[in-house]
Design brief:
single chain; about 100 residues; mainly alpha
Length: about 100
């Protein structure tokens, strides 16, 4: 998701309904995985920056609280996803 989407601009993303659905689903999966991990290994999730934000975002996406603001999804993609992914990789490597 990250590599291909990096070449996008926010305006292009916000005009593309297919991409918005793809981003929604990817963030749902990320949030669900982190939620499950938190139940089994909270100490690991505590080391993952933005994990709580990803879990909260998943709840918003799944339960459809009001309308989804895709600008927020784009912001999450740009601002916290890179750090979250780096921390997950570090946790998987046992660091």
């Amino acid at each position: 998701m990250q590599a291909r989407a990096r070449s996008l601009q926010a305006e292009a993303f916000l005009r593309n309904e297919d991409l918005k659905v793809i981003f929604e689903r990817k963030f749902e999966v990320i949030g669900e995985a982190l939620s499950a991990l938190r139940k089994r290994h909270p100490e690991v999730v505590d080391r993952i920056r933005h994990a709580a934000n990803a879990i909260d975002l998943r709840h918003v996406l799944v339960h459809g609280y009001a309308a989804i603001d895709h600008a927020i999804l784009w912001n999450a993609f740009e601002r916290f996803l890179p750090e979250l992914v780096a921390d997950v990789h570090a946790a998987l490597d046992g660091r």
